[in-house]
Amino acid sequence: MIITRTPFRMSFFGGGTDYPVWYEKHGGAVLSTTIDRFCYVTCRYYPPFFDAKVRVVWSKIELVQNANELEHPIARHTLNFLNLPKNIEIHHAADLPARSGLGASSSFTVGLLNALYALLGKKTTKADLASEAIHIERVLAGETVGSQDQVAAAFGGFNKIVFRTDGNIEVIPLSISGNVLRGLKDRLLLFFTGLSRSASEVASVQVKNTPQKEKELIAMHDMVDEGVKFLENGALDDFGKLLHEAWQMKRSLTPLIANGHIDAIYEAARSAGAIGGKLLGAGGGGFMLVYADPSRHKAIKEKLSKFLCVPFDFEQEGTQVIHQSGGVLDGVNFT
Hints:
alpha+beta, Ribosomal Protein S5, domain 2, Alpha-Beta Plaits, 2 domains, nine-stranded mixed beta sheet, 11 helices, 39% helix, globular
């Protein structure tokens, strides 16, 4: 039996420049970190006593004869991509809900790949996990997704991720002092808006609008290096103000990114002392990130008391195999 733990990500700047339609022409970059909220994938060879040959447990329980019959698109395409030689059982669990702007779908894809490779006894790299996850989601599943979530989930940590015009992706870990990172974390609040949405649907409209939003996307790309500079210099409030500027620009990319509900949450936080913030992910719902001096956190939480505030810390490891065992009940010795 294999268990993997894969972090969710929090993206600060550059989102939108990680879509191939943009970076294959202009290049792209994002500034992001992973957090200590995780997707867990458990897999094992499924014992032959049962009628089904494939069992996948997510929000549903699927019992089928082969992977092609699975409703879950990523599980179906990943199992076919690796051409698993035996019966298989997969369980998925997560600390936070899907469709919430934290890269949950890609965390699952990366975590599933990592688990299946471990089950097969094959070594892989974080770069390969990220690249294969992008291929599975974009090419095999036909989803409109960017390339940052898979990379963040695989590598973990606080990084500048650069997307080259030739398709290559570079992960640049940031050298930020521990005091600055703690100061940043202490100034951030994470609220669940109560809305979930399909990132692919929102992103499809954004991608379609890309040719008309070149000025905005260039500016959003430039904000990545600005954000890095502010962190390296310990200018945290400037970082917070840049978050506000980036959110105003991002919400202009398509009307689907923001709505009255989202705007009301953000303005309530600002009225209670927030300097900046943004809706995480493609838009339309999910988690709202708020930046404020710690002295204003109590007032902001009171103002947004009907929304769940989720504690978190930054994470450095990326996807990991946290349990690995074998034996008869895992199907290893069945003939």
